[in-house]
Design a protein that fits this description.
This protein has a single domain, classed as Beta Barrel (Sortase, Chain: A), CATH 2.40.260. It is globular, with a radius of gyration of 14 Å. An eight-stranded mixed barrel has the order 1-2-3-4-7-8-6-5. By secondary structure, it is an all-beta fold. It is built from no helices and eight strands.
Length: 172
């Protein structure tokens, strides 16, 4: 899948090192949903997603870096961390805690449905290849949350995009 490298510093200051495959290394918090879930490297079903973790797409940026920090999570079963992702609205905060730093992203765009093969949604400048009117056009520090939709199926993908607002904590 397209990516931005992985550990560039960007707005986040010091880079987040690329963790070992299947290793949990951070916590995703979404206040609107009351969600706090571990983030692990990789999107393998058995090793990451089926454990109830949110998985980081390999090859995409790490938190705070220039590019796209892209994550996947189950909507139903296995802890269903993204069960209520459809409740997010533009302006909601999405927080990522890694090694004493908090990366604060703000939801900017929502794509309610696209095909599972729409890899443009996790590109460094995320933009749907299936629905070209959705996404961004300029480089930046983005977060992308993906999950299956409608509920109880894997027919399509729902995509939530946000932009980095600030970083708080150690090293800042």
């Amino acid at each position: 899948m397209p990516g931005s490298g992985g550990s560039g510093a960007g707005k986040g200051g010091r880079p987040v090192p690329v963790p070992a495959r299947d290793e949990a290394y951070g916590v995703l918090r979404i206040p609107r949903l009351g969600l706090a879930v571990p983030v692990a490297e990789g999107v393998d079903k058995r090793a990451v997603l089926d454990k109830g973790y949110v998985g980081h797409y390999p090859g995409t940026a790490q938190p705070g870096a220039e590019g796209n920090f892209a994550l996947a999570g189950h909507r139903n079963t296995h802890g269903e961390p993204f069960r209520y992702l459809n409740r997010l609205v533009v302006g909601d905060e999405v927080l990522v805690d890694v090694r004493g730093r908090r990366y604060v992203y703000v939801v900017g765009k929502v794509l309610g449905e696209t095909s599972p093969g729409d890899v443009g949604v996790i590109a460094p400048v995320p933009r749907s290849g299936v629905k070209p009117g959705y996404g961004y056009e300029e480089p930046g520090s983005y977060i992308t949350l993906t999950t299956c939709t409608p509920e109880y199926t894997s027919k399509y993908r729902m995509v939530i995009w946000g932009t980095l607002r600030n970083v708080v904590g150690a090293g800042r």
